[in-house]
Amino acid sequence: xxxxxxxxxxxxxxxxxxxxxxxxxxxxxxxxxxxxxxxxxxxxxxxxxxxxxxxxxxxxxxxxxxxxxxxxxxxxxxxxxxxxxxxxxxxxxxxxxxxxxxxxxxxxxxxxxxxxxxxxxxxxxxxxxxxxxxxxxxxxxxxxxxxxxxxxxxxxxxxxxxxxxxxxxxxxxxxxxxxxxxxxxxxxxxxxxxxxxxxxxxxxxxxxxxxxxxxxxxxxxxxxxxxxxxxx
Amino acid sequence: xxxxxxxxxxxxxxxxxxxxxxxxxxxxxxxxxxxxxxxxxxxxxxxxxxxxxxxxxxxxxxxxxxxxxxxxxxxxxxxxxxxxxxxxxxxxxxxxxxxxxxxxxxx
Lengths: 232, 107
What we know:
The complex is a heterodimer. Chain A has one domain (23-225): Cytochrome c oxidase, subunit III, four-helix bundle (Four Helix Bundle (Hemerythrin (Met), subunit A)). In chain A, 77% of the residues lie in helices and 0% in strands. Chain A has seven helices and no strands. By secondary structure, chain B is an all-alpha fold. Chain B has one domain (16-96). Chain B is flat.
């Protein structure tokens, strides 16, 4: 135990950059920098959420018709998958904090499996929308099936699907990047890069992963749920 | 909580049980929001869905993202982000939602 502590402190000394007073200041600074980046990400997705609100307010019935085409079972399953991946990610960061690199690597690998699970289910949904011509562009085709609102313009439902593909697509891109970052942590973890005194990259990738989960927590009700029972 | 370890050099380590409890609450809330969405309760559908999403998001930020144990500077950053998002959404909607108000001749 004593030998391992000395080893940890030596790794920590190598990890401490000269412009920081100590490891704690370095860790707080790294974490703050990550939160600043996530703040810009909130504004990035916030713009899309804002566009969604504006068009939903303008073309409410067209959005209701579009959201009838969402597969709630697959969407809910994906929400559960992401929540599970957030749990394994949080436990992985905890394992790194406690100096258990093997446990960390196992938990991060499970996180990656959940990440691919999410993308796989999303791909099934995308395929369904694609073959049903629910992709904006020349091939887009939508029958206005609601006799109560015959005036609903398919072009307005096309806006709903444009936002659906843009928002979930940008989210899926973040998932792909997140899986790449977690894979990088796994490799570095296997090489013994992290100790209880130095695990900033694990903490920060964890923040990123949870943030991507957070975006989905809002995407799921907005795109799938809130218009489902408003057909009348 | 008594089992929390507070050490300056290592950072706060939350108990694994806490993370599992948060996961259980998040899963239960997901199930709730899906079931509620299948029942027509008028405008309350939107309210319930967004309130549940906000509870879930708050739990993720506070515990999974360690905000509860983070420096005040980090907390201020998150509050600033929420405020900025509020400005973006509210000021845009005050414009778009009021465009269809009736116009009165002669004014």
